[in-house]
């Protein structure tokens, strides 16, 4: 509140700032500030987690957020293979309708991290769901069939373009509930 009051009173207290050179300089600075888009940064979400996660490369993954519906579970003792970061796959968000987050428009690479850790899924066909990443449909996705078994990490890489300031993944249940372990959205260079 104080900063706003100080900013609001500065023009009246400093009439010398209204010279043509000062006005042109202020107008140019304001125009430049509005024309510069917000910088795109990498978004990393560890689904199902309640605290941030630091991976083996030193990247920080934010705890579960951005999901509509569903629930979370952590399985800290699941023996995950196929990754140097098993902790990334030891929690999940399941039975959700969608995931979304606001990001600047542009081209990105989305990496969706999956691992079948539910002990009651013991063969292919027991968890099948579809999902759509920014208009890229994936029909009848079966983690167990894709990886060949339980507790095996899998990453689906999808190049996408955001044009409305929102990145979104829609999930549709076919057999059992959809689930995901982590989401990484990296700006394309």
Question: How would you describe this structure to a colleague?
Answer:
The structure is a single chain. The protein is of the alpha+beta class. The chain folds into two domains: 2-35, no CATH class; 43-187, Sandwich (Jelly Rolls), CATH 2.60.120.430. Helix content is 17%, strand content 39%. It contains three helices and 14 strands. It has helices at 2-13, 20-35, 143-147; strands at 43-46, 53-54, 60-63, 67-68, 71-74, 91-94, 98-102, 106-114, 128-133, 136-141, 154-162, 166-175, 179-180, 182-187. The strands form three sheets. A six-stranded mixed β-sheet has the order 2-3-1-14-8-11. Strand 9 (128-133) and strand 10 (136-141) form a beta hairpin. The protein starts with a helix and ends with a strand. 26% of the residues are buried.
Give a short synopsis of this structure.
The protein contains three helices and 14 strands.
């Amino acid at each position: 509140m104080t900063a706003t009051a100080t900013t609001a009173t500065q023009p009246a207290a400093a009439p010398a700032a209204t010279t043509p050179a000062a006005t042109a300089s202020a107008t140019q600075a304001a125009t430049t500030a509005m024309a510069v888009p917000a910088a795109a940064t990498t978004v990393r979400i560890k689904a199902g987690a309640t605290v941030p996660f630091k991976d083996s490369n030193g990247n920080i993954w934010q705890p579960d957020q951005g999901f509509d519906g569903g629930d979370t579970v952590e399985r800290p003792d699941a023996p995950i293979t196929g990754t140097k970061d098993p902790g990334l796959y030891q929690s999940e968000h399941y039975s959700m309708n969608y995931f979304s987050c606001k990001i600047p428009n542009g081209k990105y690479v989305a990496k969706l991290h999956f691992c079948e850790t539910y002990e009651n899924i013991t063969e292919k066909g027991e968890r099948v769901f579809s999902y759509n990443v920014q208009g890229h449909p994936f029909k009848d996705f079966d983690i167990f069939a894709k990886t060949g078994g339980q507790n095996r990490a899998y990453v689906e890489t999808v190049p996408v373009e955001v044009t409305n300031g929102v990145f979104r993944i829609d999930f549709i249940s076919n057999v059992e509930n959809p689930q995901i372990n982590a989401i990484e959205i990296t700006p394309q260079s």
